[in-house]
Amino acid sequence: MLQPFHTKGISEAGVDEAGRGCLAGPVVAAAVILPNDFNHPDLDDSKKVSKEKRLELRDIIISEALDYAVAEIDNKIIDDVNILNASFKAMHEAISKLKNVPDHLLIDGNRFKAYKAVKHSCIIKGDGIYTSIAAASILAKTYRDELMEGLHHKYPIYMWNKNVGYPTQAHRDAIRKKGISPYHRKTFRLLPEPAQIPA
After folding, report:
1. Against a cut of 0.85, is the pTM above it?
2. What b/e sequence results for 2-37 when a residue is b if at least 16 CB atoms lie within 10 Å of its CB, and e otherwise?
3. Quick check: helix, strand or coil at residue 83?
4. In what order do the strands lie in the sheet with 119-123?
5. What is the pLDDT of residues 49-85, one digit of tens each?
6. Parallel, antiparallel or unpaired: strands 67-73 and 27-33
7. Could you give the CA distance from residue 170 to residue 20 in angstroms, rounded to a whole number?
8. Is-contact 160 183, C-beta < 8 A?
9. pLDDT at residue number 86
10. Beta strand 119-123 with 104-108: parallel, antiparallel or unpaired?
């Protein structure tokens, strides 16, 4: 069972990102402040929850959260500043969109660039430990998946409706055949072999 809070009696926001390991598309972050008594038996790390259940949970989170926000950083900025800094930037933008600045940030992972003077705790696999981080992982994942599914209609060859930009065999085969789209991350190793990517 997920823990409802890290420190009792203060305002906490769970923060997580989605799409860090993708070859294409943005990195998306979400920040969520939940009531201390929020609980749902299906809430967990978004990677452990089915697509259908994630969509159900998203609606519940949006309905019951005290505050939430989502932000995206596109592939061009990822290429400019690198994926780690782009992830921090997405998290900062999501936090900045909250109506009220929380007292404490719960960050999924082991690294974070401090946001203003707000205290934070980095928690490895935090999306499987705290409700607010799990909720953030659900919002970030569902938002990003739907964005990539929309882009699939412009570039169906890459099968983003199924892989949402991750490096699957089909995705890489399409890069070998067609080259890259405007949404691919040029600084990423798009193919495992040093093959010439079509222009």
Report:
1. yes
2. bebbbeeeebbbbbbbbbeebbbbbbbbbbbbbeee
3. helix
4. 67-73, 27-33, 12-18, 104-108, 119-123
5. 999 999 999 999 999 999 999 999 999 999 999 999 9
6. antiparallel
7. 19
8. no
9. 98
10. parallel
